[in-house]
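User: Could you check the structure of this?
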Amino acid sequence: MNIEEKSEINSEKRLEIAKKAGKIHNTIRSEIKEWIKPGLKMIEISNKIENRIKELTEYSENNPLKGGVAFPTGLSLNDCAAHWTPNTNETRILKKNDICKVDYGVHLEGIIIDSAFTISFDEKYKKLIEATETSTDLAIKLSGPDSILGEIGAAVQENMESYEIELDNKIIPIKSIKTLTGHQIDPYKIHSGKSVPNFKIDYPERMKEDEYYAIETFGSTGSGITQEKVPCSHYMINYNIDYKNISISTKEKKFLNDIYNKFGTLAFCSRWLDDYNIEKYSKYINSLNSLNIINKYPPLYDNKGSYTSQTEHTIYIKKNGAEKISNL
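Assistant: Sure, the predicted structure tokens are below.
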């Protein structure tokens, strides 16, 4: 069965699979909170999470798109809000004064559960984490058929920015990060169609019954505006174009076919390509990126010295509201 066929799973079956994936995600979430601690290498943390996902989804290299890791595990620290995963040579260690966004995905037959939480070992970040937890809860409460996405964004910003935090004897207002949004999810498509903003904006799009969304809010002690930095580790085939009709070299085509066979239209990272011993992948990624065939997703940072938090859940839009299917 190929990706196109799997995408035709009916609504009832899709929800059944999503709830199964949600339970797997929640099991791993509980386990992470038991074993994560300062002193662990970031690469050890990501590998442990991803290996556990593979174990519980019964991942098979012979059929890699049937189930497994939906996207590279994000372990963004402090002023980094999103899209940071360790590369193969990463030596960074989780420290007691770090605030870490643990963002990981589970998929079964392309049905994705995208959920994240923020962990710290210092009470001083409590209000920052609380700001994103309550903002995400509020966004979920406001979600349902015909909910206007711009209005959800306005409510998130109002709630987020009602918080403040004391750091180094200074009272700092918490900002809602405007450059990151929640997003609709479709089979094998982590960002599909509509967005769920985290600030007041004229965005009249509405949620509809039988849709899936990742509701994720981000708070910051900085500006609330993130910037891309290097090195980039996250990549994904651009599923919004028909790349098969674009002229590329034989070697590029072979590389692209290898990527597609291993990851389909799911996101992947440099560390995984190293694990597969794929040679000269940076060269091919750069050339295919220039043709808009592969997209890059660099890590996103707020002001240096700032701190960021994230809370995320996957929801299903039903007739009379929204059902949270992560953290079941």
